[in-house]
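Structure ticket #2291
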Amino acid sequence: MTEPPKRSHGRLRVSLTPQPSDLMDMRPAAPWTAKVITLFPEAFPGTLGLSLTGKAMDLGLWGLETIALRPFGEGKHRNVDDTPAGGGAGMVLRADVLGRALDVAAIGTPGRADWPVVYLSPRGRPFDQATARRWAGGRGVTLLCGRFEGVDQRVLDEYAIDEVSLGDFVLTGGEIAAQAMLDATVRLLPGVLGNAASTEEESHAAGLLEHPQYTRPSEWRGRAIPPVLLSGNHAEIEKWRRAEAERITRDRRPDLWAKLGRD
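Resolution: structure written out below.
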């Protein structure tokens, strides 16, 4: 079977075309790349093409390739799914179809330690900041976006695919989850945020939720910025921020607080 073309996205090229444009060829190769297998490649880059992640894509700090699943389908109509074995509602994505797409996605990628292959699944382990850091520390990631009732278990077993969940809820497909996870990961790549300290002080960076933030005006509708933040005493400011982060984490996320071994 002839391999369908792989498609890259960025602000310089967001439409789907059979071959990369000359303009895309002029862009520097991205050191970190996300490959997304999806029935809806037109959903990307979506929000990833905006703001800091979009600018970083334009600068070649990361790359995004969508691999459309439909061309790998069976028969005249390129069917990608079939009824569940044993009966039941809905449809299941076929293992043979997914296998062909995964083989194409694997071209040019290193071992799993540097390039995980992930199925976005509500039954997977929860996605968290540690996962984002681990993905950002590699060379890229391949994300498989499910649809319908899910995918044939055999393809998950055959390719040893990791299952990761965005949360304890069900979406109609993995595309939204993929964008959320990629956003969390890409922002950790060198040069994307510009200020590395930003990622060190935000929520979950040290197991705590982030302290409150304030800016001008100094008073708004009778509410003033805490005086310590205007004192210029950096030691006291840091002490206040730490205490507030601990208070908020204890009150709002007792599960995180317990992981820190606090009373």
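Closing remark: The radius of gyration is 22 Å.
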